[in-house]
Amino acid sequence: MFPFDLFRHPKGLKELSPAELRQVAQQEKGVKIVDVRRPHEYQQGHIAGAVSAPLGTTARSIRDWPRDTPVALVCLSGHRSQAAAAELLGMGFTNVSHLAGGMLAWHRAGLPMKR
After folding, report:
1. Residues β-bridged to residue 96
2. Stated pTM of the model
3. Of 16, 39, 77, 80, which is most buried with the most CB atoms under 10 A?
4. Does 75 qualify as catalytic in the annotation?
5. Fold category of 14-108 in CATH
């Protein structure tokens, strides 16, 4: 069971469109893009600069980061990134966003992926 209602975003979660995430990634040098998909999904194509931290390992992977680190979470459709966001917000991270529609939306927008 997820720690939130799938139809409501966790409090404090910012939702980014593919274009907004691309702009943030290009302009804000401190933002960390965290891809919470399984390793084989990540290898099939991911956003350049994204780190792989599959759901279930995400919190452990970034637990030592400063809590004010801007974190943008990505998954396939947006559901796993919301689950990861709820966990990070619960850990005290204060600048958490996720890619609305996930990599499916990124692909539909025609944005580049690294393989």
Report:
1. 71
2. 0.89
3. 80
4. yes
5. Oxidized Rhodanese; domain 1 (3.40.250)
Element (H or E) spanning 81, and its range? helix 79-90
Enumerate helices (H) and strands (E) in the chain, giving the number of each. 5, 5
26: exposed, middle or buried (Cβ count in 10 Å: 0-12, 13-18, 19+) = exposed
Domain layout of the chain by residue ranges: 14-108
Handedness of CA 21, 68, 12, 37 (dihedral sign): positive
pLDDT per residue rounded down to tens, the chain (115 residues): 334 344 445 677 899 999 999 999 888 778 999 999 999 999 999 999 999 999 999 999 999 999 999 999 999 999 999 999 999 999 999 999 999 999 999 999 999 999 8
36, 47, 75, 103: the active-site residue: 75
Give yes or no for a contact between 69 and 32, defined as CB atoms under 8 angstroms apart.
Answer: yes
